[in-house]
């Protein structure tokens, strides 16, 4: 009989209460179990909360109840008779240790570090005396979440650099895939022996890809395969799983490009489509601005800086553009040196 799904109480309390009502546990056994639970609660509170604050001690005791129930469920497979035999044998601490091994599995994957993550994750296993939680499902959900975070961390470190890895609340799988896509296009330029600053050549490559879908897919799969082969296992696995979606997104980007505009404006459109931060590199803005026609320059200024179309911006030189960008509050280096375009 699997009682944890039938009654709204933690599994351990169900076994204890049924055992007491049916006379299975002696007073000596109950005193021992109670002492073990109190000792574990005090130890947990001392390690992660405060043993002198009543609320924290209650918090710790409820976490011990949840973790011990999880361990008992694991050891008995949720069977009432197996669970009662385990508790009668005086191994309640072993139940906690079994549940704790599950918790440790989740904590080790956390990006926050063991000490901070432990208190946060431990709270998820908390069970009140009159509360039922599906501890199996809870653990699997927490484990899957931390595994996903670990993969995304590795992806960000590979494609963005470790120092650019965002806070957990700032990114998800979709955002990670967008950054990978940008990295794949950068790899395509390397594959074509073309620096990404040569926007005329990039425009020509994009035009070829637009005209020949099979050519694009061959090059895309080639560079993706190389990146996968050179990635650590968890990143490689994620890339393989996401590759069909990445390939489809890349095709959509190429299809969306307007090849009737200047090569500079085409590059700006392309950069906008693959840029996830919403902020373009100011140096890119300047050298792309140089290659635009008068109408495109006006649209550029209107969209990125001025907020309105002014005729005198049509023929804006670099120095004036830099002044305008500076007034907008962007923090850029004014000395770009020679631009190779």
* Domain module count: 3
Order of SSEs: HHHHHHHHHHHHHHH
Tell me roughly what share of residues is in helical segments: 55-70%
Largest sheet, in brief, is: none
How many β strands by DSSP?
A: 0
Structural class of the helices, strands and pairings? mainly alpha
The number of distinct helices, counting runs of at least 4 residues, comes to 15
Give the mean pLDDT.
76
Low-pLDDT runs of 5+ residues are 1-6, 306-314, 324-341
Indicate the radius of gyration in whole angstroms. 30 Å
Q: What quaternary form is this? A: single chain
Distance between the termini: 75 Å
What is the 3D shape?
Answer: elongated
List keywords for this structure.
341 residues, mainly alpha, 15 helices, 0% strand, elongated, disordered N terminus
Can you describe this structure?
The protein has three domains: 11-150, no CATH class; 172-278, no CATH class; 279-341, no CATH class. Helices cover 70% and strands 0% of the residues. The chain has helices at 11-21, 27-48, 54-76, 80-88, 92-109, 114-124, 135-160, 173-191, 199-211, 213-230, 233-256, 263-274, 282-290, 294-306, 318-327. It is elongated and about 90 Å long. The model is unreliable at 1-6, 306-314 and 324-341 (pLDDT under 50).
List the helices and strands and how they pair.
Layout: H1 11-21, H2 27-48, H3 54-76, H4 80-88, H5 92-109, H6 114-124, H7 135-160, H8 173-191, H9 199-211, H10 213-230, H11 233-256, H12 263-274, H13 282-290, H14 294-306, H15 318-327
Helix pairs in contact: 1-4, 2-3, 3-4, 3-5, 5-6, 5-7, 7-8, 8-10, 8-11, 9-10, 9-12, 10-11, 12-13, 13-15
